[in-house]
Amino acid sequence: xxxxxxxxxxxxxxxxFSLQVADPRLPEIRIFKKAATDNLSAKKxxxxxxxxxxxxxxxxxxxxxxxxxLARWILDNPEAVRGTDVLDVGAGAAVVAIAAKKAGAKxxxxxxxxxxxxxFSSRNAVANSVDIHVVRGDFLDPDVYNEACVITxxxxxxxxxxKDRLREVLNTQAKHGKLVLVAGxxxxxxxxxxxxxxxxxxxxxxxxxRLMNLSAx
Length: 217
Ligand SMILES: C[S@@+](CC[C@H](N)C(=O)[O-])C[C@H]1O[C@@H](n2cnc3c(N)ncnc32)[C@H](O)[C@@H]1O
Prior knowledge:
The protein has about 220 residues and is of the alpha/beta class. The chain has helices at about 5-15, 45-55, 65-75, 95-100, 115-125, 165-175, 190-200, and strands at about 15-20, 30-35, 85-90, 105-110, 135, 150-155, 180-185, 210. The protein contains seven helices and eight strands, in the order H-E-E-H-H-E-H-E-H-E-E-H-E-H-E. It binds S-adenosylmethionine (SAM). S-adenosylmethionine binds near residues 64, 113, 140 and 156.
């Protein structure tokens, strides 16, 4: 990431975003969200650039139910991640990686393809006084999973184009004995499909795939 882009995004965050509790169910974690009033009066950031920055920020400032559920579960069950290497894929605001590190993970990585997300994730980690690794990468690339022993995935089964590939990649991790924690809104059709198949599968050890926030779990 170029220095220019980093400082541009930092400037936007400092002027227009403020640290807020990630969710009432996650009072331990604060993240940058849009401030009630912003401070663009100095007009140093032209409107078009500002709109662009806010678009980049969209996924990184919204914490979805799956991430809340997963982060809550990790904070309440720290033994599941203590001393392990955790990889959160499609990390968004990085609350799950932050929760994992707070719960005692040896290493927690927030992986997302979004460049705006990377800036917010890094700032969110600092704001919560934890050291996480922020990586830009593709969760469909099997190589990104190499080092991790616990994989977390919240709200990423939303696209028909990649759902089958994603299912294959996550199932391969579970078959390798890694713990795969998948979370999401149970009304999400692709996720329900994945869950239904994983629960029926004879080649997957149910212990290695846990499904959160789902009536089927
Ligand atoms: C719906 S958001 C979920 C964010 C977060 N996990 C949550 O639950 O709040 C999906 C995230 O996946 C990321 N994403 C989409 N496709 C991706 C890919 N191929 N590799 C990595 N990240 C991806 C998006 O940038 C976005 O941040």
